[in-house]
């Protein structure tokens, strides 16, 4: 039996059932808004968003693996590429660019040029510390935790993720 | 993205080569060795209690995988015998056959292990196991009531699995 080639993020995204992008963006905005009302502190909101993302990521990884036929990545560079090109493309419909590698190859940034989560969003001055898309941070963290043992932490601003190994 | 739409499994199931009730039992383990699912269809003999049986199966896979990786003449990076391997690390076997049964095995990079024990005459079941993994994703992982790492007790998943496995050649 020939090995099944990994499917591209584009192919999976176009075959999957999708939800309206504006509905998705506004729903996410409503969740963040509600969290700010409930928790009051931006740090708490960041933490909560990360936790929510983590819980998503832990499950999402199985769907990702089942649909993409990706096998184990050999190194961190490949992992970052797969997250950026296949993972984001498959679930968000946009792909990220991997940049800012450090000398040892243990830190990189994933930059989303076109982040669907931040459409229509303007942060007021009171929310400057808020990592609006921290949920993505959590998703990547949760998913990576299920497939590897050596990663450290990700930091994220509105469309910028940094991964350290 | 899928919210409450009908569940459509993608890709569609591999073609069934023969029909008949060939499967004996199925196990699903997670990366921590917890048995998420045990189903049996055709098992006349129970020599151990269920928990011991699952432990034995997990131990068998663990050792066999370790041995097959150790014997690998191709790949250079090896770990010592008995040292746990990460899921997907090193080489791995997909099935073995005895005179009375065949065991097919699949491990995903996330550490989910799917084991299907069938009649020794059954053919290659790798595609079928992949399809069962898809079933697991659709009916278990996407179920919001399911807590990851706990045993699966969902009628819909069980009946879909039963139905699919019954058709296996």
Automatic annotation (TrEMBL), chain A:
Record-level GO BP terms: Golgi vesicle transport; macroautophagy
GO CC annotation: endoplasmic reticulum; Golgi apparatus; TRAPP complex
Locations listed in the record: Endoplasmic reticulum; Golgi apparatus, cis-Golgi network
Positions in coiled-coil regions: none
Main localization of the protein described in the UniProt heading: endoplasmic reticulum
CDD domains assigned: TRAPPC3_bet3
InterPro entries tied to this protein: Bet3, NO_sig/Golgi_transp_ligand-bd, TRAPP_component
Record keyword Endoplasmic reticulum present: yes
Keyword Transport in annotation: yes
Annotated keywords: Endoplasmic reticulum, ER-Golgi transport, Golgi apparatus, Transport
Function summary: May play a role in vesicular transport from endoplasmic reticulum to Golgi.
Family per similarity comment: Belongs to the TRAPP small subunits family. BET3 subfamily.
PANTHER family linked to this entry: TRAFFICKING PROTEIN PARTICLE COMPLEX SUBUNIT 3
Protein name (Swiss-Prot/TrEMBL): Trafficking protein particle complex subunit
Protein's organism: Chenopodium quinoa
UniProtKB/TrEMBL annotation, chain B:
Keywords noted in UniProt: Endoplasmic reticulum, ER-Golgi transport, Golgi apparatus, Transport
Top-level division of the source organism's lineage: Eukaryota
SUPFAM superfamilies (alphabetical): SNARE-like
A Pfam family assignment: Sybindin
GO CC entries: endoplasmic reticulum; Golgi apparatus; TRAPP complex
Localization annotation: Endoplasmic reticulum; Golgi apparatus, cis-Golgi network
Annotated InterPro entries: Longin-like_dom_sf, TRAPPC
Gene3D superfamilies xref list: 3.30.450.70
Biological processes annotated in GO: endoplasmic reticulum to Golgi vesicle-mediated transport; meristem structural organization; pollen development
Quaternary context: Part of the multisubunit transport protein particle (TRAPP) complex.
Family: Belongs to the TRAPP small subunits family. BET5 subfamily.
Protein name: Trafficking protein particle complex subunit
Organism from which the protein derives: Chenopodium quinoa
């Amino acid at each position: 039996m020939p090995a099944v080639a990994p499917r591209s993020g584009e192919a999976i995204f176009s075959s999957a059932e999708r939800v309206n992008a504006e509905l998705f963006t506004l729903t996410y905005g409503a969740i963040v808004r509600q969290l700010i009302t409930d928790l009051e502190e931006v740090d708490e909101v960041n933490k909560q968003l990360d936790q929510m993302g983590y819980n998503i990521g832990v499950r999402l990884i199985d769907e990702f693996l089942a649909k993409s036929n990706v096998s184990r990545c050999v190194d961190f560079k490949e992992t970052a590429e797969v997250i950026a090109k296949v993972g984001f493309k498959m679930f968000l419909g946009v792909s990220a660019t991997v940049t800012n590698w450090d000398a040892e190859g243990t830190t990189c940034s994933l930059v989303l040029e076109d982040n669907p989560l931040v459409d229509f969003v303007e942060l007021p001055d009171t929310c400057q510390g808020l990592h609006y898309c921290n949920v993505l941070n959590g998703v990547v963290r949760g998913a990576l935790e299920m497939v590897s043992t050596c990663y450290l932490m990700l930091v994220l601003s509105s469309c910028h993720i940094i991964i350290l190994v | 993205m899928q919210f409450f739409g009908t569940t459509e499994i993608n890709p569609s199931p591999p073609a069934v080569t023969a029909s008949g009730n060939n499967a004996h039992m199925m196990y699903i383990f997670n990366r921590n060795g917890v048995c998420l699912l045990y189903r049996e269809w055709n098992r006349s003999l129970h020599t151990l209690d269920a928990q011991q049986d699952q432990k034995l199966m997990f131990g068998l896979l663990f050792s066999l995988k370790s041995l097959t990786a150790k014997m690998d003449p191709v790949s250079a990076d090896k770990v010592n015998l008995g040292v746990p391997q990460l899921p997907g690390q090193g080489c791995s076997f997909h099935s073995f056959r005895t005179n009375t049964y065949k065991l097919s095995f699949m491990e995903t990079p996330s550490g989910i292990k799917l084991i299907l024990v069938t009649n020794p005459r059954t053919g290659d079941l790798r595609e079928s196991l992949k399809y069962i993994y898809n079933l697991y994703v659709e009916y278990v992982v996407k179920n919001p009531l399911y807590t990851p790492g706990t045993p699966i007790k969902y009628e819909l998943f069980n009946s879909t699995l039963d139905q699919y496995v019954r058709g296996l050649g």
